[in-house]
Design goal:
Helix 4 packs antiparallel against helix 5. The chain has 192 residues and is an all-alpha fold. The protein has one domain: Four Helix Bundle (Hemerythrin (Met), subunit A) (Up-down Bundle).
Length: 192
């Protein structure tokens, strides 16, 4: 749930609903992209005899704990900001960003491991779909990481309400991406 309550008590804060609309639009667009890629993946898998299941390296599903801990750190950071504990906010928020960055690096390493087994975009439709789907997801994650860094660095430049709204919106999108990655990992395990 998006916590957009005013940070300071006694003030009437007007929540920027355009931020919530932007978040909902981003989630809808991302969901449609992943739904289209998932549909193509499932249909293509059933079309030919050239589909050879991939053995996923540990780094692909192993990214789930990194994302879960990163999501937890962001939530701790967001709450620390709301409680006006800036040092705790900085540690937790940017710790979450570092865990997200570790996730991206782990996925790239996983891709290299798949390539080293002889499965590539040209040689294996299964590998091609894995690279396209996870590559698209990594692009979303990199964009979200940039937004997390931006919102974290902007703290103190606006009102407490706008700062908190920015943190809540970016953290909410990150939490959504974590759930989406869990879905993709389950999809790859069921369909591999």
């Amino acid at each position: 749930m998006i916590d957009l309550e005013p940070v300071t008590s006694g003030e009437t804060a007007r929540v920027d609903r355009s931020a919530v609309t932007g978040l909902i639009s981003s989630i809808a667009a991302t969901t449609m992209l992943v739904a289209a890629l998932t549909s193509a993946y499932i249909v293509r898998r059933g079309l030919g005899s050239d589909w050879k299941p991939l053995h996923l390296p540990f780094e692909i599903p192993g990214g789930v704990p990194l994302l879960l801990f990163s999501s937890l750190a962001l939530e701790i950071g967001r709450r620390a900001h709301k409680a006006r504990r800036k040092p705790a906010f900085v540690r937790a928020w940017f710790g979450g960003v570092l865990l997200g960055t570790a996730f991206v690096l782990a996925q790239v390493y996983g891709w290299k491991q798949i390539g080293a087994t002889g499965f590539g975009i040209v040689t294996s439709p299964a590998a091609a779909f894995l690279f396209v789907i996870t590559g698209s997801f990594i692009a979303l994650v990199i964009g979200a990481l940039a937004a997390l860094v931006w919102s974290g660095l902007r703290i103190g430049r606006g009102t407490p309400e706008t700062d908190h709204t920015g943190l809540a919106i970016t953290a909410s999108y990150w939490h959504y991406l974590v759930c989406l990655w869990i879905y993709l990992v389950v999809l790859f395990h069921i369909r591999s």
